[in-house]
Amino acid sequence: MARFPITRTTTPKQKPADDSLAFGRVLTDHMFLMDYTEGEGWHSPRILPYGPLSLDPATTVLHYGQAIFDGLKAFRGADDKVRLFRADRHAERFNRSAKLMCMPELPVDVIRQSFDALVGLEADWVPRKRGTSLYLRPTIIATDVMLGVHPAHSYLYFLILSPVGSYYKEGVKPVRILATDSHVRAVKGGTGEAKTAANYAQSLAGQRDAEAAGYTQVLYLDGVHRKYLDEVGTMNIMVKIGDEVITPPLAGTILDGVTRASALELMRDWGLKVTERPITIDEVMQAGRDGTLKEMWGTGTAAVVSPVGTLGYKGEDVLINGGQTGELTQKLYDAITAIQYGRSNDPHGWTSLVPAVD
Ligand SMILES: *Cc1c(COP(=O)(O)O)cnc(C)c1O
């Protein structure tokens, strides 16, 4: 592995107890940085003590949001080894996001080396308690200093790490979601396929309104017809109607979730009928009324799966599987986490061991 220059912290932080961990509140002792300059490409990879970045107020990212990120996790197994889950796939998606946002791509092996180098250095920060993990947040921001709107000529790549608690402290728990036709997440030709800051900024109002109406999250419908399922909050959505699992296709508005892809692959391994096709909210609500809507869940790195117990739309609520976590949803959760923590074998080679750094 490439060796990067490391400046070690002289004031290591007190590590929090595994029990006290939430999501993204505690950051580790070091960060990985690398610069991009037009003509020179990516250069000056380095690991520094974690700390604030100094940015001129006219830095373009602060005004026009040219920023991408990704999110993946490192898990400590019962064998004490640290594994990354589908790091290559995350690195490839990071580059697709870069391309969509007119940003320079990074060689996948450099992204991977930054993951291994920083997680290896911070290995003690990977928590031990069941369900906990170390979250990796690779990010690129535009760093030109000027107020004109343009794809920047200079960028900063940074990688930061955060120990996170179990998403489900008392077992997988269903949520109430609201299908909305007043807010839209993405349209074809827009930024829906990129993991970019703007998508999150514009999701806040829909989320706020869903919470005000007594739901946990928003189920977005397509921006043109306002009838096809798109995504739930910042997760991909799946439904099981009868014996068939249906999920919206990757057709220009949906983020290509790594958990989505993994769940689809596992369910196909298990011989289930899995279909990627547009599905309307009317079809889902009707299936909810006539009892054929067996399960519904979101997928994403943070939760793995998030079962939907109640689906609301136009003033009507349907209860799914009696408001309980469905059998298939639970099976996916168990299978994916078993691979992540090295408790089961990994037939698809999704995990990679992080080499120790001294
Ligand atoms: C990150 C994200 C997901 C989930 O992707 P994973 O790779 O499974 O974590 C789904 N939808 C949106 C909009 C996202 O930003």
TrEMBL record:
It catalyses: L-leucine + 2-oxoglutarate = 4-methyl-2-oxopentanoate + L-glutamate; L-valine + 2-oxoglutarate = 3-methyl-2-oxobutanoate + L-glutamate; L-isoleucine + 2-oxoglutarate = (S)-3-methyl-2-oxopentanoate + L-glutamate. Its cofactor is pyridoxal 5'-phosphate. The keyword Amino-acid biosynthesis applies. It holds the Pfam family Aminotran_4. Pathway: Amino-acid biosynthesis; L-valine biosynthesis; L-valine from pyruvate: step 4/4; Amino-acid biosynthesis; L-leucine biosynthesis; L-leucine from 3-methyl-2-oxobutanoate: step 4/4; Amino-acid biosynthesis; L-isoleucine biosynthesis; L-isoleucine from 2-oxobutanoate: step 4/4. GO terms for molecular function: branched-chain-amino-acid transaminase activity. It comes from the Bacteria. Belongs to the class-IV pyridoxal-phosphate-dependent aminotransferase family. PANTHER family: BRANCHED-CHAIN-AMINO-ACID AMINOTRANSFERASE, SUBGROUP IIII AMINOTRANSFERASE. NCBIfam families: ilvE_II (TIGR01123), PRK13357.1 (NF009897). This is Probable branched-chain-amino-acid aminotransferase.
